[in-house]
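Supplementary Methods S3. Input chains for the assembly prediction are listed below.
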Amino acid sequence: MQLRRCSQGICLVTLLLIAGALALDDPALLFAGSALAVAVLGQYLVFDRDIREIASSVQCRRTLGRNMVRRGTSLLVTTRITLRGLPRIHVLINELPPSKTLVMDGETTIDTVPGSPEQTYLCRYRIVPLIHGDLRFSGIELTFKNFFFSYTLRLSRETETGPVLSVLPAGLFQAPSTDSLEGSRDNRKASVLSTVDIHSLREYQPGDDLRHVDWKISAKYNKMYIRKYSSPTSHPPLLIVDLPWCGAPCPEKAFAKMISEVTGMVTDTLQSFQHISILFISGPNIIHLIREEKNPAHCLAELKEWMHPAERSVHFYRMPDRNDLRSMIRHCEDAGSRAQDPRVRAVLETLKDRYTGILYCQRNPAFAGQVTRTLSQLLLTNAYLFTLGCGDTSHIRHVVRPLRTCQVQVTVRVIEEAREGRPARRDTFSAVRGVGA
Amino acid sequence: MSTFPPEYRFLILLALGIIGITAYLRPDTWYPAPALLLLFLGVYTLTRSWPDRGFYIVCSGALLIAGTGAINIWAGLFTAWMTAGTVCSSHGLLREKPDLPYFLGFCGVTFAVALLIEFSNHVLLPLSILTAGCVIVLLVQSVRVYQFKKHYSGGES
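Predicted structure tokens for the full assembly:
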């Protein structure tokens, strides 16, 4: 129960009157102060009785667009809340979506009409689950207000927190569907006759060029098989966009610059390679993957949809990479074996113990696995990572390392607002090596 | 259709009562109560469109109660009832019949407080009794509020 401004002032006056009565031994002041105290206490009891009456009349019924959704897809939620209003009590209803979800559109706050008889209020909005698993709604929150008091009551019984929303993992990390669905077999052998590779074989279909029939295989299986060819080509670069966290302010100019740079690069790449893959991450969270998109308009529409500060369900804070820790331990061991001074050796030994301790305690984050699985589907030779470099940047190491392991050349572009007398920094991987460690 | 605001009946009674009490009791310094009445009426008129009007009326009303209470505790009690009536009427707290028992309850409790103060020689004893009463009410209320919150948060009360 909170006192509003008016009743705070009245309580202060009451205290002053009673203090004055005590100091001056004046019964008139005591009576005035007591009358005010009785009035405030009486109003409090009346307010308490009213909110109990309203709360007992609340009925909540929530329906979901679908009972099962994939992580990252939007879901329509409709909540019907019935309550009986009382005169002079203003009730605000606040619908509480499950934690780790993002409210996309719609209203979650309803302003009720004081004094109305039993009335049903409708609340309709869309949410996007950020994690998978069974999610319960947090309930509803009622804020009661009158002239003197305000009170917030959270209703989180089973009736207010149901139904359970089942969120399935997103299909981002599954391998893309291949030609194997058509009954073909992969046979990536290089042709010695031309620069063209045989990519796979499939059954003959009317209209196929007979020059592409593999007679040897056809004779073997007594069926016509057609060769599918692929010519050697260079792969387009992968663009990785590290979006800033929406919970913290980000440099708007730098972010606008990042958007224009990414858009320009996407346009150029589409012109050169005809398709492009873009991975959106926000800290150690994979937000979205655009896989081998060929349509420039669609690609730009997706960029417009996803290029904004994103919610982060996981945060890193100076999370060192395990490989870096191992190399630091090796470095300490080497330096310790070469050191002559016993004090230097002791320091290096302590450092090594610290690094070993961290290495034992720290598991590989789920983000690293997700990145590896996502990147394993893509054929690429180089990648560009765009980041603002604000906040913790240790997740960049977890993106860059698997790429480097696959012999992918990575360029990290840290976009900063240009300052006077100092050009904007253009960093590469080597420049951010020490960021995460 | 009557355009007579409901609080006017309390205001008129208050004005008549204070003038009558001052004339009847003839205190040595007669002017504080009428002066505070004028202040109360002035605040009531001036703050019609102000936010938190209740606070200003209650403050000027408390001064008026203290002023009339200095003449006679029963005069103070009468002023307290009339002031409370004015504040409640102006804020719509005495609009319907079910609101009347609460106002009568306030009158009854303040009457008991006035009796307590009248029969005490000093401030300390009635103040201690009133403080103890308030503390007990608040303690009971805090337990009730805890059970109320627990019930609605899904726990057993």
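The interface with chain B takes residues 1, 5-6, 9-10, 13, 17-18, 21-22, 25-39, 41-42, 44-46, 48, 52, 55, 87-88, 147-148, 153-158, 161 of chain A (CB under 8 Å). Chain A has a mean pLDDT of 82.
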